[in-house]
Specification:
Layout (H helix, E strand, L loop, with lengths): L1 E7 L4 H9 L7 E10 L21 H24 L2 E8 L2 H11 L4 E5 L5 H6 L3 H8 L4 E4 L5
Parallel strand pairs: 1-2, 1-4, 2-3, 4-5
Length: about 150
């Protein structure tokens, strides 16, 4: 049995595929850390403002991004609880290529579960594939959930 697995989610459709695939892994994983990474550009935590600060309204894009991330984490954690998993949600700021390995080490995770968006050729040219980059750098096993999974 795997003691700790990290499930990396975002607000793309493919994260739902990863969550649905978790039904196949019931009984194989004891604890799931649900992680979403908010880009530093949209991370309110970077501002140093307290949650009750009047200045928070000056960062509407950051507020919106963090609200979306929190809602995503809550939905996934709730769904995993309903499946019988022990789980906790985590939102971190930075880049996925830096944050995911850091959190894997911090929580002593043995497995990374991540979805793959299958970027087009142009998309790959313009954007680095997080999943592809992690596959090259991770020391732990990585379970990649395709765009359309069963």
């Amino acid at each position: 049995m795997i003691n700790n697995a990290l499930l990396a989610v975002d607000n793309f459709e493919n994260s739902r595929n990863a969550l649905n695939y978790m039904r196949h892994l019931q009984g194989c994983i004891a604890n799931v850390i649900v992680l979403t990474v908010v880009d530093n550009t949209f991370a309110l935590s970077r501002t140093g403002l307290r949650s009750d600060s009047d200045e928070l309204n000056e960062y509407p894009a950051a507020q919106h991004e963090e609200q979306l991330a929190e809602a995503q984490i809550n939905r996934v954690v709730q769904s995993l609880h309903e499946m019988g998993y022990s789980t906790q949600g985590l939102m971190a700021s930075g880049t996925p290529l830096e944050v995911i390995p850091e959190q894997m080490a911090l929580f002593n995770c043995e497995l990374l579960i991540i979805s793959h968006r299958h970027l087009s050729s142009l998309g790959r040219l313009l954007n680095t594939s997080v999943t592809r980059s992690l596959l090259e750098d991770m020391l732990q096993p990585v379970l990649v959930i395709p765009r359309k999974s069963q």
